[in-house]
Amino acid sequence: MFRTIRERFRQKHRTVGFPDAAPVMPERYRGLPRLEMDECVPGCNSCAKSCPTGAISCEGGISLDLGKCLFCTACERACKTGAIRMSGDYRISATKRDDLVLRPGKPVPDVVAMTRELRGLFGRSLKLRQVSAGGCNACEADLNVLSTIVFDLGRFGIQFVASPRHADGIVITGPVTANMKLALEKTWAAVPSPKIAIAVGACAISGGLFATGSGCNGGAGGIIPVDLFVPGCPPHPYSILDALLKFKSC
Amino acid sequence: MSFVFSRRRLETLAPDEFRSALVARVDAGGRLVAFFGLPSGDGSRLHAVVADDARGSVQVSVAEVRGLFPSITPVCPQAQLFERELHETGSINIAGHPWLKPVRRPLAYNDFFKVEGHEIHEVGVGPVHAGIIEPGHFRFQCHGEKVLHLEIALGYQHRGIEAMLCGASPARAACIAELVAGDTSAAHTVAVCEALEALSGEAVKGDAAICRAIALELERLANHTGDLGALANDIGFLPVASFCGRLRGDFLNMTALVCGNRFGRGWIVPGGTAFGIDAALAEELRDRLQKHARDVRGAAELLFATPSVQSRFEGIGKITQEDCRALGATGVAARATGIARDARLDFPSPGYAGSGLRASVSQYGDVHARAVVRWREIQQSFGFLERALGVLQPGGQDADRMNLAPDSIAVSFVEGWRGPVCHVVLTDSKGRIEHCKIVDPSFYNWMALAIAMRGQQISDFPLCNKSFNLSYSGFDL
User: Of the CATH numbers 3.30.460.80, 3.40.50.1370, 3.40.50.10800, 3.20.20.70, which one belongs to the domain with range B2-95?
Assistant: First the structure.
């Protein structure tokens, strides 16, 4: 016991000060892309051609769908004029799917807090059930990390629970494979109403790299109504935490 | 390390010859690392890849099969899952296999082996589990608490990765490989890149090769540390669970310092690496490594010095070396039974040249042995990284200009944190990717977990499962 206590002191207090203290992101972290129309050469299309998921369209001005983006920087490297640049901004989530489509001059995606009625029910205690539906387990890993002492999700009144019957909503990862569709539908049906659905990662939002895969359903949106979208491949834990806290409004 | 063979020069064997050659090689200590078929007329062209770990060599055999193919499984159990896969994908009709049940297709409720008798009961778990974890279905046949038989049904994560790789450009192939299994992003990406580079005739050397080894070791550290914490969590030893949960993220953050992504996405590209390490970053990484090494040591020593932990780990979920060899079990699970095999040593990539690494082994094949192997590997990875971290330039050849040799087969091995990851890439007459076979160590080891659970208490399943910590998506592809 003495040994355990001694080691506990040696390992120190490690919980981050978020949201009061701004997180320090790695210098090379790739967050919200910035589009500069002035720099863009019309008809160039090299960014759109380079994108592995077809997230970029150059028709009628450049647009980038964060819901499809893998943040791989292929476009940044392909663009000769610097019209697309990855920023260090981890606040990339949205409550409306359309808001994830970036255009020059358009406001960046934003998370609108849940309705007053839902806040009354979930504002101080939000229990979530996670369903991995073809996720590669990177999104799952960065959801898991929220429950470690570093992020300590419990202090915000949010907890991942073992059964959909105990949950107020579900968090979906993965492109929803053919073999997981039924399980996702059953899990969703087992959550008592009112309930919320959160799609985490490019796969769950749009199918990501697997959008055209034969065994996948192109994300969760076509199967259940999604209330919150957290883009990324996978999203940084701060992106997920930021989205959850803004949505819950606490 | 990777190997290239010309498809034209490979002799096409008659099915009987193919069968006996395969069985003889495995009997002589070989490991069946891939066994797959390509459509050919009204039959199939079977390819079997056998690795001789002790000699560091690989042999590929090919046979044209029409009609029925007599199963190899009864004399070579390593082939059981490959043959089920061949049967499921419709490549060939296999006769005499003990049970050609689906590999990745959903099973019906009654498709499972059933034990009957007084007080026998059945427990079904999944596909949706209690934690944040990938889906799979576990069907236990129990007598009271005791598990008589466990059957593991997977396939829920099947995304069709191998099919997507057909016709993909080298850059896209690497992009897809990153998503085979999130926790093994680096190993799968290095494996596909090494195969592609072997086909292009330009192996990666120097800084890029060392950078890749660093990515692999950081991945190993993150996952092994996380696993020690998860094992502690499953027996309710919360201090170590908390320490290791945090430390796992610290290693992921080190990877993010180099490439901006905690899982190493975008770091490794065909032909080289996209991110290097400058002097300031090397110093920061060394500094963090030293601090984290101290904390992991503190956590691990507390874990292994606590008698109540020992008593929960020892003798649980045991698998014998004999069973491991028969099933072809690899990686941590095999090393925990004394099989001293490690692809970093048996098939070393240039980044590991003169690494001084040894295969970390233990002997009892139980939860404790698997934990010990992880801890020994963690310590070796620290040593390796201390020596390898320095100023390393990014770059290499341009993936878009990579020309792959036509009509060839490349086989690559990379020691991921679970065990050896094997990628086989076949090119067509124009040098395009015609077929890919990906074999994650989980492919063999799920069966080892099922065997390890026999005679155990069902309440120990989470602990046993965590001690193997296998990949669902890496299996389902």
Answer: 3.30.460.80
Domain boundaries, chain B: 2-95, 161-446
Give the number of other CB atoms < 10 A from CB of residue A101. 18
Whole-angstrom distance, CA of residue B250 vs CA of residue B98: 46
Q: What is the pLDDT of residues B88-123, one digit of tens each?
A: 987 788 999 999 999 998 877 788 899 999 999 999
Whose CA is closest to B73, among B57, B62, B84?
Answer: B84
Answer whether B130 sits within 8 Å of A138, measured CB to CB: no
Query: What's the rounded Cα separation, in Å, for the pair A24 and B256?
Result: 12
User: Which domains are delineated in chain A?
Assistant: 116-248 (3.40.50.12280)
**What is the model's pTM?**
0.95
Contact A28 B259 (CB under 8 A): yes
Q: Which CATH superfamily is domain B161-446 in?
A: Cytochrome-c3 Hydrogenase, chain B (1.10.645.10)
**Which of B155, B156, B298 has the CB atom closest to A11's CB atom?**
B298
Query: What is the per-residue pLDDT across A116-170, written as a single tens digit (0 to 9) for each?
Result: 999 999 999 999 999 999 999 999 999 999 999 999 999 999 999 999 999 999 9
The predicted pLDDT at position B371 comes to 97
Residue type at position A175: P
Long-range contacts of B302-307 (CB under 8 A, 24+ apart): B302/A3, B302/A4, B302/A7, B302/B239, B302/B240, B303/B228, B303/B231, B303/B232, B303/B237, B303/B240, B303/B371, B304/B371, B304/B372, B304/B375, B305/A3, B306/A3, B306/A4, B306/B237
Q: Are A28 and A63 in contact (CB under 8 A)?
A: no
Task: Return d(Cα B146, Cα B121) in angstroms, integer.
Answer: 10
Q: What gap in Å lies between CA B267 and CA A85, rounded to an integer?
A: 18
Kind and range of the H or E run holding B65: strand B57-65
Helix (H) or strand (E) run with residue B307 in it: helix B307-313
Structure tokens at B271: 């032909």
Q: Which residue of B has its CA nearest to A14?
A: B246
Average pLDDT, stretch B315-334? 95
Contact B157 A215 (CB under 8 A): no
Contacts of A138 in chain B (CB under 8 A): 179, 182-183, 185, 263, 265
pLDDT in tens, B220-238: 999 999 999 999 999 999 9
- Token readout for A87 is 């920023």
- pLDDT tens readout for residues B1-32: 999 999 999 999 999 999 999 999 999 999 99
The C-alpha of B5 sits at a distance from chain A's nearest C-alpha, in angstroms, of 30
Count of other CB atoms within 10 angstroms of residue B36: 22
Chain A residue with Cα closest to B293: A11
CB contact under 8 A, B159 and A132: no
